[in-house]
């Protein structure tokens, strides 16, 4: 779902370029990125890329070509994978499963009627990341020579920890949840195309940078208050209060300072006492997920190695029928000088 706090961060979004990230380590939320690839790397009918046996390969295509684009620019990615979900997230996981099932049904209906654009839209919402895809993605990232961190629970919490402890400079994610986990910096659109189609119009996609300190300062909020706003609007671990968006939640917290005060005074929200929508046991559980997340503090040495070309060819070309000439051309790009510092990849790795 991703926390919907866009109005609070909109003014603090800074447009940057890849040159601003030269030499920096970025802790990428792996699941978030893989779902992006599954959603946007598709054929004209909206279907995901597949090999000859019908296995989906959109995630591998994204990992290969778009990660090369990042590495070429002298940026050091670290992929952080989710662990077991917090029990409070199971309801959100089930909600997403229902959405995918409904979207898949609607996609097939639109395809049967020859409505390609409509089918493509539903196809994006039908993306499913399987355990096999996750395991293969890990093997492939390792073959690329890029380090992987396995989170205990939420990948964005672990990625935020890497930034707070100076193992990385920023979290790479499309969602704002990393800010609730306390990530000092977040970079958005790192793995996106530089342009996208919106209603048949080509729109530029900018690389964005967010500073948690600046967001808190400009909105005159504490980290705890930002988390409370997230709870009111809805997060992966709680659906929020119906009809309450970021602007309303912000006004409530600015006026009453915390959810505790809202509860103590049983403030009415949308003509309904807040006690009918929240209880403090649940609030404190969700707060602790963000403010005291389950993370693994034992970070292994982060090493970027030279790509294992044989393994890459094995996964892409032998197993999934990728075009060997295209793969070879892309791998050769890794041998050229990368980024504005003009360092060789030997120096980089």
From TrEMBL:
HAMAP family noted in UniProt: Fen (MF_00614)
Subunit structure: Interacts with PCNA. PCNA stimulates the nuclease activity without altering cleavage specificity.
Gene: fen
Keywords attached to this entry: DNA damage, DNA repair, DNA replication, Endonuclease, Exonuclease, Hydrolase, Magnesium, Metal-binding, Nuclease
NCBIfam families: fen_arch
Binding-site residues for Mg(2+) 1, renumbered to this chain: 29, 82, 156
Protein name: Flap endonuclease 1
Pfam families assigned to the protein according to its UniProt record, in alphabetical order: XPG_I, XPG_N
């Amino acid at each position: 779902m991703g926390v919907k706090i866009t109005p609070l961060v909109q003014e603090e979004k800074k447009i940057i370029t890849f040159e601003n990230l030269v030499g920096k380590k970025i802790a990428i939320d792996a699941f978030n990125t893989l779902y992006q690839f599954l959603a946007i790397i598709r054929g004209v009918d909206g279907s995901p890329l597949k090999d000859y046996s019908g296995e989906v390969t959109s995630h591998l295509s994204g990992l290969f070509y778009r990660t090369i684009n990042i590495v070429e620019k002298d940026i050091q990615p670290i992929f952080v994978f989710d662990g077991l979900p917090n029990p409070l997230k199971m309801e959100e996981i089930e909600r997403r499963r229902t959405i995918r099932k409904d979207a898949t049904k609607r996609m097939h209906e639109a395809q049967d009627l020859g409505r390609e654009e409509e089918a493509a839209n539903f196809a994006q919402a039908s993306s499913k990341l399987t355990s096999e895809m996750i395991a293969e993605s890990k093997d492939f990232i390792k073959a690329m020579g890029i380090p992987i961190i396995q989170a205990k629970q939420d990948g964005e919490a672990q990625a935020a920890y890497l930034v707070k402890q100076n193992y990385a400079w920023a979290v790479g994610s499309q969602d704002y949840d990393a800010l609730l986990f306390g990530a000092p910096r977040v970079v958005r659109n790192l793995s996106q195309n530089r342009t996208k189609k919106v209603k048949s119009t080509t729109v530029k996609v900018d690389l964005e940078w967010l500073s948690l300190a600046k967001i808190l300062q400009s909105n005159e909020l504490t980290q705890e208050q930002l988390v409370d706003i997230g709870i009111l609007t809805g997060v992966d671990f709680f659906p929020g209060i119906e009809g309450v968006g970021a602007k309303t939640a912000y006004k409530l917290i600015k006026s009453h300072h915390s959810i505790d005060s809202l509860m103590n005074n049983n403030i009415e929200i949308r003509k309904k006492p807040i006690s009918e929508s929240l209880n403090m046991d649940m609030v404190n559980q969700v707060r602790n997920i963000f403010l005291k997340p389950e993370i693994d503090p034992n970070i292994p040495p982060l090493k970027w190695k030279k790509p294992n070309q044989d393994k890459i060819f094995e996964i892409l070309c032998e197993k999934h029928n990728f075009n060997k000439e295209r793969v070879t051309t892309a791998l050769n790009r890794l041998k050229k000088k990368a980024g504005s510092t003009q360092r060789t990849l030997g120096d980089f790795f």
